[in-house]
């Protein structure tokens, strides 16, 4: 709540509609001034007239595929004012748009899992529940840990935060495999395997090698429930613990001992989403499944494989799996899409081809980018490259409550309300409640709801009836609720403030039915079984993602490995201006954690301003020394609002500490084209020059007429 209250009327709020001066005076077109230009505040009617005319021009001259609908969620806990749904519904009513597919969070796994295990939804949304794990699991091998900071959120929110309590009640021992010791709560009984980043797959292969050599693998399970195991076993030749020790930094004897413990106990292998958010991110997920299959415990209570425990609050949850009220988006007549993490490629390389999940696709020629809900200058990698990409469209439109970097790189910025400034119905995935979200604050300045903005545009474009169906926002809430349930009535629900939903099953084991009878309950893979080797993936011929799990070395190395993970003081980049987020800053910048050994070698102490750099860019951060970070590793969370300084003597840098000036804009592989922003090779030095002022929390230069 500290972030919400402080950000509500913060100076960074967008008070009135604004148009970039270059676009206002020179008209639409590519422009290198985007992100550097001043803004002119324009009355609502004028800006909506201009925007409607530009939308009509683009769709008439270039087709609707030239409009990219770039919303990326997380903008509101409400189901009606969900910005992505509002934007997509509006664009669909005017003829469609080029869409994005998958997510930055787990886009790699979303493409891989159908080939290997058949059902992405089951793995990500119907995992074995925490009570089952607490009762039956004896050993958890947690690749990437179970970071508690991530489990307080899901899309739509979490009413009851259950995961911390479940972790506290664990009886299982945990093998924490992570460069960060605090990727697991300190209260959990664990041994820390301080692995080098980007080497988890090598460890998994060495564990598998040990199981084979010592005859500890379950041949009957592999024969009955899997295909392609013999090819995978042959690939393990030479991948012994001594080989892995040189890659991972974990002693060979410890690898052997861990493999024996896994075979001797009811073992759950978990892989966080962070590990697939890397170059070759398919491999640790696939190898984790193969390793679990070799233990033969998939489908047994407390055993098998999990993906995302600690990555999101609903993984392993016992809440109901019910579809709550939602705004229909309609049908998109345009079939073009891009994998979500390829936005810069889309803008920089129109007409070029790329591989994706066995297809060869082509980037459409994008003329207008429309963003409502989300901040690509948080989610995306290599922000200097993204800045260049954002100069290429004719027009960039952004709805935003705050002057984020995305807003500053727009041509038209429309002030949007926050969740506290409007009415809505709130509920998250597998949530225990539906919440009546009463408005508790007046809109800041001239801010409007996304729905009101799109309704006004729809009126100007002649599709008002199709978009609004004649309803006000309150009437939409009543309509959506009534279509979902009749009792209690909406008026009673709204007065009560919440509705408790029936509980979901307390005990559930992933793939239990498949284990009981694989013929009656086959997986949705081509074979109906677990595909340790996938003939389909092998047939694609991708060298960066062959047909079975392999360890592929990262394409870059450096003095230090940067881990750019999720923050604990905010959700992604949301409300960075809030009190909780600001209290976590060091020297007014994002805090970077270094091991004391690495800090001493560079003359760095806690509280110093440091420069973090590589060939792609640099940022300033505030140093914190912490032996919970493995030597050779630094940790700088994502989400500080990007604050570029273009004319600094050391070269372009972010004054605020955004790690995505350092991460590479490359896909995890040609299979998924997923985000690879979790790691980067960097170096760190103590910054001794005059430190530039952090300007990210202050509005850009604006002028009236």
Automatic annotation (TrEMBL):
Read off the PROSITE patterns from this record: MOLYBDOPTERIN_PROK_2 (PS00490)
UniProt family annotation: Belongs to the prokaryotic molybdopterin-containing oxidoreductase family.
Boundaries of every Molybdopterin oxidoreductase domain copy = 13-459
What is the recorded name of this protein? Molybdopterin oxidoreductase
**Which terms under GO biological process does the entry name?**
anaerobic respiration
Describe the location of the Molybdopterin dinucleotide-binding domain by residue ranges. 560-677
| Any one Pfam family match given in the protein's UniProt record, by short name | Molybdopterin
Keywords tagged on the record? Metal-binding, Molybdenum, Oxidoreductase
Recorded hits in Gene3D superfamilies, A to Z, give: 2.40.40.20, 3.40.50.740, Dimethylsulfoxide Reductase, domain 2 (3.40.228.10), Dimethylsulfoxide Reductase, domain 3 (3.90.55.10)
Instruction: Name its species.
Output: Amycolatopsis balhimycina DSM 5908
Care to name a GO molecular-function term for this sequence?
Answer: molybdenum ion binding
Read off the SUPFAM superfamilies from this record: ADC-like, Formate dehydrogenase/DMSO reductase, domains 1-3
Respond yes or no to whether keyword Metal-binding is given for this record.
yes
Give GO cellular component annotations, separated by semicolons: outer membrane-bounded periplasmic space
**InterPro entries found in the cross-reference section:** Asp_de-COase-like_dom_sf (IPR009010), CT_DMSOR/BSOR/TMAOR (IPR041954), MoPterin_dinucl-bd_dom (IPR006657), Mopterin_OxRdtase (IPR006656), Mopterin_OxRdtase_prok_CS (IPR006655), Prok_Mopterin_Oxidored (IPR050612)
According to the UniProt entry, where is the signal peptide? none
Cofactor annotation: Mo-bis(molybdopterin guanine dinucleotide)
């Amino acid at each position: 709540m500290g972030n919400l209250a402080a950000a509500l009327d913060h100076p960074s709020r967008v008070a009135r509609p604004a148009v970039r001066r270059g676009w206002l005076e020179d008209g639409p077109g590519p422009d290198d001034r985007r992100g550097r230009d001043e803004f002119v505040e324009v009355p609502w009617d004028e800006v909506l007239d201009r925007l409607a005319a530009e939308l009509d021009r683009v769709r008439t001259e270039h087709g609707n595929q030239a409009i990219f609908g770039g919303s990326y969620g997380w903008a509101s806990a409400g189901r009606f004012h969900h910005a992505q749904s509002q934007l997509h519904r509006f664009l669909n009513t005017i003829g469609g748009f080029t869409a994005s597919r998958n997510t930055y969070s787990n886009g790699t796994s979303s493409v891989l899992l159908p080939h290997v295990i058949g059902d992405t939804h089951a793995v990500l949304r119907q995992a074995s529940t925490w009570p089952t794990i607490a009762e039956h699991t004896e050993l958890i091998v947690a690749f990437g840990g179970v970071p508690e900071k991530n489990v307080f959120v899901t899309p739509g929110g979490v009413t009851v935060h259950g995961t911390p309590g479940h972790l506290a009640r664990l009886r299982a021992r945990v093998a924490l495999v992570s460069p960060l010791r605090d990727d697991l709560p300190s209260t959990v009984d664990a041994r820390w395997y301080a692995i080098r980043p980007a080497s988890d797959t090598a460890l998994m292969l060495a564990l598998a090698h040990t199981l084979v050599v010592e005859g500890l693998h379950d041949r009957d399970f592999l024969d009955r429930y899997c295909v392609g195991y013999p090819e995978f076993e042959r690939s393990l030749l030479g991948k012994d613990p001594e080989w892995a020790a040189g890659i991972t930094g974990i002693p060979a004897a410890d690898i052997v001992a861990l493999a024996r413990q896994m075979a001797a106990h009811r073992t759950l292998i978990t892989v966080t989403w962070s590990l697939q958010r890397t170059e070759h991110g398919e491999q640790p997920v696939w190898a984790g499944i193969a390793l679990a299959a070799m233990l033969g415990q998939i489908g047994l209570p407390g055993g098998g494989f999990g993906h995302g425990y600690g990555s999101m609050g609903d993984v392993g949850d016992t809440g109901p799996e019910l579809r709550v009220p939602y705004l229909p988006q309609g049908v998109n007549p345009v079939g073009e899409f891009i994998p979500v993490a390829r936005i810069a490629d889309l803008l920089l390389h129109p007409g070029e081809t790329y591989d994706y999940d066995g297809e060869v696709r082509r980037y459409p020629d994008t003329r207008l980018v429309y963003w409502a809900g989300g901040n690509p200058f948080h989610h995306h990698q290599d922000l200097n490259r993204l800045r260049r990409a954002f100069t290429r469209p004719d027009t960039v439109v952004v709805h935003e409550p705050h002057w984020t970097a995305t807003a500053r790189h727009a041509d038209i910025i429309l002030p949007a309300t926050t969740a506290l400034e409007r009415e809505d119905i709130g509920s998250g995935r597998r949530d225990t409640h539906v919440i009546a979200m009463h408005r508790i604050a007046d809109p800041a300045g001239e801010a409007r709801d996304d729905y009101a903005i799109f309704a006004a545009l729809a009126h100007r474009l002649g599709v008002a009836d199709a978009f609004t169906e004649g309803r006000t926002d309150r009437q939409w809430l009543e309509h959506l609720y009534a279509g979902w349930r009749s009792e209690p009535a909406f008026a009673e629900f709204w007065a009560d403030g919440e509705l408790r939903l029936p509980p979901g099953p307390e005990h559930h084991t992933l793939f239990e039915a498949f284990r009981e009878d694989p013929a009656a309950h086959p997986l949705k893979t081509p074979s109906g079984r677990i595909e340790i080797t996938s003939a389909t993936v092998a047939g694609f011929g991708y060298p960066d993602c062959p047909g079975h799990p392999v360890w592929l070395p990262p394409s870059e190395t450096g003095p230090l490995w940067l881990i750019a993970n999720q923050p604990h003081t905010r959700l992604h980049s949301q409300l960075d201006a809030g009190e909780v987020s600001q209290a976590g800053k060091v020297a007014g910048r994002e805090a970077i954690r270094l091991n004391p050994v690495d800090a001493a070698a560079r003359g760095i102490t806690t509280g110093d301003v440091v420069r973090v750099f590589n060939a792609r860019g640099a940022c300033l951060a505030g140093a914190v020394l912490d032996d919970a970070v493995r030597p050779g590793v630094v940790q700088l969370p994502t989400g500080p609002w990007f604050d570029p300084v273009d004319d600094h003597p050391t070269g372009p840098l972010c004054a605020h500490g955004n790690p995505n000036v350092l991460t590479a804009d490359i896909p995890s592989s040609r299979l998924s084209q997923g985000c690879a922003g979790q790691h980067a090779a960097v170096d760190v030095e103590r910054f001794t020059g005059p430190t530039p002022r952090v300007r990210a929390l202050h509005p850009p230069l604006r002028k009236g007429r």
